[in-house]
Amino acid sequence: MTRPKKSIPFNRPTLKGTEFDNMSAAYSRGDLSGNGAFSKDCEVWLQDNTGTPRALLTHSCTGALEMAAILQKLKPGDEVIMPSYTFVSTANAVVLRGATPVFCDIRADTLNIDETLIEALITPQTRAIWVVHYAGVACEMATILDIADRHDLGVVEDAAQAICASYRGQALGTFGDFGTLSFHETKNVTCGEGGALFINAAAHIDRAEIIHEKGTNRRAFARGEVDKYTWHDLGSSFLLGELAAAFLRAQLDAAGETSQTRLQKWQIYHEALKPLEISGDMVRPVIPQDCVHNAHMYYIILAPHHDRREFLAALKDRGVHAVFHYVPLHLSPASTDYTRAPKPLTVTEDLAARIVRLPLYPSLTDEEQAYVIDQVKDLLTGR
To answer: Is residue 29 part of a domain?
Structure first.
């Protein structure tokens, strides 16, 4: 196939078309700082479309995770079980409270935390299980919640990649005590930077609102419940700016359509690359029966006889910008000081070294996607 005139980027943000109208409206009414009308509207949308009792917009998913750690009252000496195959923010939120991330290996099929290995990692110091729904595909939440219940542990869902995805008919991010979303530029729904915290138990809502507003009861003041506001608790400036919220509101309107378009393109990759899985050159993603995913990414796992560095370089030479993903946190320099991995993480290390993520976004044209597929086939079959 003829090479496209321009190279194909890994990510290309998609606009609904009303983002800048919303931002202009926010500016015109002088509504620029956090917790304005668009922020509240986004929070209502998230509550209505996921079933969480309370959603709070944050400046990032990182901020939402840090709020979750404060709300769980993590402290020095506590341990939190989580996968090593995740973004650094998942671990950082725990470390900032003085607690220790304890890394668990992942499943070979979904790259999610291996629920069968969690219980063996529990100690008297374990306070919580933090799961990551990789690529918008759910962890095995029924088993994880059962473990948490039996051992009296909290659960946080890092659902950064999982908007519009579900497990057994329930939105991801709504199973644990808290859930977090990301609206980073690379996510299905974006405002450049941004996130949300789901508070799934009513008992935590009041404190979450205080932490969200720098540790003050400013929200109660804004509702007329108190005649002045003051410092009540730990907190920080976790709010999302109103211009970003205005942009996000337009994106949320198109969230369902965006997911469907991505799913169609995901399926095209999946069907076209099946012969390479049959030939033993790569492995395709697996979607368990109980999961409805959102096509956040399409990745392949190269067979061990293919060199990923050479493969990515060859794709780039042909105008296709594919990428790998996380360096496992237990292999990072900071891990020695802040975390521990009681058992070998063999699956994590193996798959992290072989994963390749292909371009996937609504504006990826049929011609561009066909070109990407052709180059992957050509390079992996040695044509």
So the answer is: yes
